[in-house]
Request: fold
Amino acid sequence: MRKRQICKRLLQIVIVLVGISFLSFLLIYLAPGDPVRAMFAISGSIPSEEIMADIRENLGLNRPFPAQYGSWLLNCLKGDFGVSYTSGQPVTQMLAARVAPTIQLTLLSLAIMMVMSIPLGVLSALYQNRPVDYIVRGATFFSISMPNFWVGLLLLYFVALKLGWLPVVSTGMGLRKMLLPAITLGFAMAGKYARQVRAAVLEELNQDYVSGARARGLTESVILWRHVIPNAMLPLITLLGLSLGSLLGGTAVVEVIFSYPALGSLAISAITSMDYPVIQGFVLWISLIYMIVNLAVDISYNLLDPRLRKGA
Amino acid sequence: MKKVMKRVTTLLVAALMMVLFQVPATADTKGSHLNFGCYNYSDSLDPATNTNSSWAGLRFGITESLFKFSKQVVAEPNICDEYTVSDDYKTWTLHIRDGVKFTNGNPVNASAVKNSIERLYAATDKDNGGTGNSVPRGYLTYKSITADDAANTVTIVCDNPTSNIPGILAYPYFAIIDTTVIDKETIGTGPYKVTEFKPGISVDMVRNELYWNGEVPYDTVTVMFINDSSTKAMALQSGDVDLVENITTASDMERLKADPDYHVSVAAGVRTANAYMNFNGALKNKDLRQAIMMALDKKTMCEVTVGGMYTAGDSVLPSSLAYNYDKLTNPYPFNRQAAIDLLDKAGIVDTDGDGFRELDGKTINLDHVAFTSRNLDEFAEAVALQLADIGLKTTVNIRDYDTALALLNAGEFDLWTCNTLTVGVGDPQDYLANWYSGNSKSFGFYSSPEYDAAYEKLMVEVDAGRRLDLITELQQILIDDAATIAYGYYNSSMFSNVHKMTGAEIATIDYYWLTTDMKPVK
Amino acid sequence: MARNKKLFLFYAALALGIVAAAVFAPFIATHNPQQAVLTDAGQSPSAEHWFGTDRMGRDLFSRVIYGARTSLASTLALVVCIFTVGTGLGVVSGYAGGLADEVIMRISDMMVSFPGMALAIAMAGIMGPSITNAVIAITMVSWTKYARLARSLVLKIKHEDYVLAARISGCRTRHILWRYMFPSVLPTLVITAATDMGGMMLELAAFSFLGLGAQSTSIEWGYMLNQGRAFMQSAPWLMIFPGLAIFVTVVVFNLLGDSLRDILDPRDAHNAGQLLPIKQEVVEA
Reply:
């Protein structure tokens, strides 16, 4: 049963990837301007029209769209995403260097987000409509409404520069260097999650089994820790998967602020230099990583939760 | 249920641990280490790739040239220790210093030098499949180059009489590299050797144990690419880096100058900021160019907009150099009303009521390419705002340096703002060649018979006094033609933390950043 | 309930205040926001320049006020685009079923299983930086939420007696769509759109901050922050005021959206701000 499900998911991933690849190829195909001209504009000298026509012929750019897409996809499958216009390096190599920092930053920010949001959300639910609740809800508003680039700039200014606690530049890796970017990202998400945790805990508290447990004379803390919180946390794991996706593609802002070299800043610089193969590769890679991570989350979720195993 | 939660938690903690412990050990755990914060001028270190990549190798102490400029801008022997020249200034015989080795241990002998130079020309030969964008031919074309390994001499026979071979060979294009491995990495003879180059992120280097010219002070060096001037300043203040180049936010510079914890080294202005104009576009129109000149308040731009980082000027050659700046006259001083009147009179007016003027029935929209180094983006934006005041539309197009350079070479711009070293080989002749019609196709297609004639005389003139007259004449022609927007002259700078290091001085000709004079504080 | 309404009115008044600031910007601003007096660059806040001046000598207060125009207009455009595209496709998908449904939902699956911001950045990058392109790019990755919501709502009422009656009595499809389907999905979707305003504003500002949205010719808060960043130490007001403007506006619109939902949809009131109000429907569909 489980195996079949995983196979189904894998098939789904393949279909989605093909769709994404089609989309990103289409983007470049429809991009304003002539790709050959763009290629040469980057490398400095534009040759005569005849030479460009020759190159177009050689690159197969005169072939019909499906044929072009097909051969491009075939190369992608072989791991060949082309060569960067600006640096002349294989795109695969450039992206590969940035994958680890991206994933590390993503995971650390998720961890920070949970440390911030879960206790607050639970507290807020337990003391519903009391001062603590109002304070927490006010705080979540801050988190949701603050532009994360502004938070980043303020942290950079106060924590890194004025207090000197953490580095200003996150070039190179290391926990200390990742902390500020991760806090920035974690803070932005924490508000949403705290609300979510609060809602989930409240919902659990209203369940019949809680009144039943109370009737059986279980203490409040046992009810809370044994039943309410674990049940409230489970749906959160699915949400984490979704956040992972938005994080993988959405860290560009803090990467720019903290000079953190991950995929987002590579994409931004590729965009300023109109380096289409890199942009294309970026889209494909991000979706691939995202789907693999999500699959892993699902599988582990499946393994962890016997109920789901049965349910499937 | 509890069990499930426990497993989830364990999983997450495990994932987190993986993150935290999969951190590569940094080099600064033992020995002396220097962190250098620097703008990312290029994604390559190969001298053939483009001008910036060649400079990067020299500046980071990875490569060296046969000659090296002193503080007084005199090219002195370096890897070449002696030379002779024929009476017609065509045949130069260079003796290569004995015992110099590449950082990988390969010997630097006459044939290695010959290979390095020939490879530079081959890799930049566009007609024969070369892909490099460096232009060594702009400085030197030669008939032949031969190596005599027994005598350890290289003989170069130039096409034309060339009096300045030491200056030319000191230029970063001519950095000596090991051609046997250039496909994989850039190996030079400098004090430091690259261990890992991550384009756009950092360069990790270690001491070159084989260095020929004295002791190398640091065990390891990390060059961190930081593109924001203010971030560079902050990184220096927070201790993330010990040394940074060219902080261009004036207020940051003032603060660091006043702070005894930092040493600020400033070089005399040998760099000009100017905007090339593309004569294949709307700017072919002379009235338009003149109006642009008159619309720009360069004094305020230099003193206020960029906070005094530049000294305003009208000529392409810096006023601090001895090229008769005082004898030049500018017929188009700042006068906004005159600019407006001129455009109105020339019939360049706004007929469709969108607030911007048209030329030949089409709204003028000047594509102004710039990059964020040395306040250039600020100049570009200030120009756009001032041109808007006289009804000219401008689109500011900020690119990274490599891309901007490519757009310049490809002629895909109307205005192209940059900051250039004017006496790159110790003399402005090559810089002035950018407006010589033989070369100007890469710099906006300016063409003036008068300028060409004077420039051709300069090419063959060897008398210093007559050269000065010609250089003065060339400058005046450019001003009269409104051929380029000169903004002002820039002073390069280097900032260091005095508690961490000594000897961080900027060279007049700033090809040399990480030198062996930079030492850790004991 | 009464308290809810009072709060809503209060927030609405605040939001109207911001809209009014945008509309009447010429009367509020103390200077021409595009007037660059280069000699006045980088002044700290004063009686003449309340928020100081930027590095080109433009009055920051006036620019922040005018910036409300760009932010509000572009956010509104974005929300309307997403709303129209999403709802339209969702209703069609739900009502028509069959192949149309299959295609639309598979595309939307693809979008959901993809990090949207990454695609939006790439699209905005390729189309060239401008606010319009940022709006298009974000629309392309965000419409699916509305489509799914609209579809599930349509599915719920599609087989109701009155719809069947209308169909049997020979009403044309278009008529049924307009008369029954759209009205029934609108309230929920409007609430969703209202609560999304703040978030969308942040996304657009982030695009401009990255240089993929507004360019130097337009007056936009995110872009101002991007420009002010370099002067963080010497002119912190360039970073503080535009950031504050975004923050305040987003807070007001978030509060307004939440209180609107509390009024129209009291069922949901106890779990304010749930991340995925449509989660159940997603699973069920």
Remarks:
- DSSP finds 14 helices and no strands in chain A.
- Residues 155 and 180 of chain A are 7 Å apart (CA to CA).
- Chain A touches chain C through 62 residues (CB under 8 Å).
- The two ends of chain A are 7 Å apart (CA to CA).
